[in-house]
Structure formats: C-alpha cells, structure tokens
Amino acid sequence: MRSNVSPPIFPVAARFLLPLILLFSVFLFLRGHHEPGGAFIAGMVAAAAFTLQTIARGASATRSAFRVPPRYLIGIGFALVVVVASVPLVVGQAVLDAAWVTLEVPGGGATEIGSPILFEAGVYLVVVGSVVTIITAALGE
To answer: How far is C-alpha 138 from the chain's CA centre?
Structure first.
C-alpha cells in the first residue's frame, strides 16, 4: 500500500532541481535555431520541472509560481504563433516568412535574431501551459 506522505528529501531536492531544469529548458530553446533542440522539447522539459514541483509541493505551489493562470499561457502562446505566422501575409510575403536582424554584441561579434524565435516562444508557451494545466488539474487539491 502506498502512503501519501512523501519523504522529506523530495521537496528539498525539487526546490533545487526546478531552477536547474528550467535553465536547461532555456538552453534548449535558444539552441534550437542552429542545432537540435527547440521550443517543443524545451517546453516539455520546463513542464517536467513544474510536474516535479507539483508532485513535491502540490498544485497550489505550482499555480502560484506563475503570474497568470497556466491555462492563459495556451492562449497567449497560440496568439503569438498566429500573429507571427500571419504578419508576412500583410506585407505581401509567404506565411511564416522570416525577418532577420543582425545585432552587434558588446565585446565584439554579431548575432542574428529573427522572427522565428517569436514563433518558437509561442510554441513554448502553448506546451508549458497545456502540460502544467493538465498536471495541476490531475494532481490538484
């Protein structure tokens, strides 16, 4: 028979692991343009971090970690995806046509930033919002 009492080390470990897993999620998100990784897998890794927190500390602790309810992230992310995908149509280009800007980085060097990162941010928000909403509903109080 399984008890509902978690070992005391689990919430402590989850508190230390959450920021590390979220940092890894950001790494995967930013790496996604040039190498394997990207918004979907980064969102799944972030959702796994919040799932760990939900199991360790409860759904209310996870919900309070967000400024807006996690289900709102789904709508915000979807709206961002639709806007980024359709803006090129307004200016006479193909759907999802990318716009790139080269930025000079302090200390020498340059980096390219493009509209695909906004599309990927929308995907990231949809994935995190969906999984966290489902997990907090399933494991919630």
So the answer is: 20
What is the rounded CA–CA span in Å between residue 72 and residue 132? 11
Q: Which residue pairs from 13-20 have beta carbons closer than 8 angstroms and sit at least 24 positions apart in sequence?
A: 13/56, 14/52, 14/53, 14/55, 14/56, 14/57, 15/56, 15/57, 17/49, 17/52, 18/49, 18/50, 18/52, 18/53
pTM of the model as a whole: 0.84
pLDDT per residue over 90-110, tens digit each?
A: 888 888 777 777 888 887 788
> Do the Cβ atoms of 124 and 42 come closer than 8 Å?
yes
Question: CA-CA distances (angstroms) from residue 128 to 14, 25, 51, 54, 88?
Answer: 18, 11, 10, 14, 26
